[in-house]
Amino acid sequence: MEYISKTIGSSALDGIFELPPTLRNKQVQVIVLPVEDTPKQPKPQKRPLGFAKGAEVPDSFFEPLSEEDLQAWGL
User: Fold this and answer.
1) Residue 50 pLDDT > 80
2) How confident is the model at residue 8 (pLDDT cuts 50, 70, 90)?
3) How far is CA 15 from the centre of its chain?
4) Residue 70 belongs to what H/E stretch?
5) How far is CA 39 from CA 1, 2, 42, 52, in A?
6) Are 12 and 25 in contact (CB under 8 A)?
7) CA geometry: angle at 45 spanning 43 and 47, to 5°?
8) What is the reported pTM?
9) Percent of the chain with pLDDT over 90
10) Does the pLDDT of residue 53 top 80, yes or no?
11) How far apart are CA 49 and CA 7, in angstroms?
12) Which residues have CB under 8 Å from 11's CB, separation 6+?
């Protein structure tokens, strides 16, 4: 099993976890051990939208809505 061991000032651990008062302002040894192997998550693949195959968005889609439609949407 691979691990890392290093002696550091206890102040470097502030914000990571609460140290007991007896360990504050002292040199401490930090040992990092693996807990479990986590498998790498594959990157999600981009998928084409199947429901719109061959469909095109008409230019009229980008035109402003009519006043009637805006009122229907409460805008």
Assistant:
1) no
2) very high
3) 20
4) helix 67-72
5) 17, 17, 9, 35
6) no
7) 160
8) 0.42
9) 37
10) no
11) 54
12) 24, 25
